[in-house]
Amino acid sequence: PANTANTMGDAILLFHQCALRVQPTFDLPRSLDSVRRICRLVDGAPLAIELAAAWLKVLTCEQVAQQLAHDSDLLDTALHHMPARHRSMRAVLSQSWHYLAPDERQVFRRLAVFEGGFRLAAATAVAGAPLPVLAALAGKSMLHLAPDGRYRTHDLLRQFAAEQLAALPAELAGCRARHAAYFMDFLAERKGELTGPGQMAARREIGDEIDNIRAAWSHLAGEGRFPRQ
User: Fold this and answer.
1) Is 124 left (phi over 0), alpha (psi -120 to 50) or beta?
2) CB-based contact 100:142 (threshold 8 Å)
3) For every residue of 104-127, which 3-state class applies, written as one string?
4) 150, 132, 129, 148: which is closest to 140 by C-alpha?
5) For a Cys-Cys bond, which of 34, 72, 189, 202 suits 65, CB 3.0-4.6 Å?
6) How far apart are CA 44 and CA 52, in angstroms?
7) Strand 144-145 versus strand 151-152 pairing type
8) What whole-number distance in Å separates Cα of residue 144 and Cα of residue 137?
9) Closest by alpha carbon to 161, among 111, 229, 199?
10) What kind and span of H or E run contains 97?
11) How far, in whole angstroms, is CA 1 from its chain's centroid?
12) pLDDT per position in the chain (229 positions), as tens?
């Protein structure tokens, strides 16, 4: 997606489309003033618009605008050196984090250890992510399930989650250790298949997870624990 909507009309249209996924009966004409205000506050950033619309599950459109304006004011004061677009995105990310349940926050920050997406089995093993929590995060536009069965998140969301995880060193260390162990086992399980009749499937599976494998390898190497090949 583009970094910003081309016009206010484009931003409003995008918000309307996202809002209808949350509230099929969303009445744009009735909420138009609030929608315009939201779109201005986030400077037309598509990700911010999508996340703001997701809050309609718990807030009215007017309340979304009020909450975002409140956080933007705080960030304008505390982060005055940052570009306006970055401040508005921080406000949206902060509010999105605020509206997550405690178990959703825990899972989402742990998922930040993944590189290039992940599958359900990996999320369960590494982040202790129950399927209902993943579904809730997807419903709040924090995650997206791709047609290939992999979960992905926007880079800005992942960076924000990584900041939350970094603030908890013990939890971060545990996640990295589980991530490294999972993907080294994943690689070992497919090693024998690389020369057999299932080599094409094995190569494809390894290719899908190559970013996670590299991250796991790098983590172990950084600790002086070089995996056996």
Assistant:
1) alpha
2) yes
3) HHHHHHHHHHCCCCECHHHHHHHH
4) 132
5) 34
6) 11
7) antiparallel
8) 9
9) 111
10) helix 84-98
11) 15
12) 444 455 888 999 999 999 999 899 999 999 999 999 999 888 888 888 999 899 998 889 999 998 888 765 444 444 445 555 555 677 788 888 988 999 999 999 999 999 999 999 999 999 999 999 999 999 888 999 988 889 999 888 998 999 999 999 999 999 999 999 999 999 998 887 877 787 888 899 999 999 999 999 999 988 877 655 5
Q: What is the pLDDT of residue 192?
A: 79
- Rounded distance, CA 87 to CA 73, Å? 9
The contacts of residue 69 (CB under 8 Å, 6+ apart) are: 37, 41
Q: Cα–Cα distance between 152 and 169 in angstroms, integer?
A: 24
SS3 52: helix
Helix, strand, or coil here: 144?
strand
pLDDT score at 85: 53
Q: Name, in order, each residue with C-beta under 8 angstroms of 107's C-beta and a sequence gap of 6 or more.
A: 123, 127, 128, 129, 130, 133, 134, 137
47, amino acid identity: L
The token pair at 216 is 């796991």
Identity of the residue numbered 52 = A
What is the value of pTM for the model shown?
A: 0.76
